[in-house]
Amino acid sequence: MDIKVRLFAxxxxxxxxxxxxxxxGASVADALNNLxxxxxxxxxxxxxxxxxxxxxxxxxxxxxxxxxxxxxxxxGG
Length: 77
What we know:
The protein has one domain: Ubiquitin-like (UB roll) (Roll). The protein is mainly beta. A hairpin with a 2-residue loop joins strand 3 (44-47) and strand 4. The protein is built from 1 helix and 5 strands; from the N terminus they run E-E-H-E-E-E. The termini are far apart. The relative contact order is 0.32. The protein has a 5-stranded mixed sheet with strand order 2-1-5-3-4, with no helix packed on it. The chain has one helix spanning 28-34, and strands spanning 2-7, 16-21, 44-47, 50-51, 67-71.
């Protein structure tokens, strides 16, 4: 299955959007692992418009065509 991944302020390129191909039944945690993004970088994840807490990422199953959005922790001063 294919999903769209939107990354904000993660990696050298800053913001990016890409298509990711995953096996059927993959979870949000599987997608993040596939992208080599750990919990420290993926502070907030959205599947569609719904927030997926860190504790639920392994159980939250992705469907073909879903949009996964990932934000890092917000830092500033």
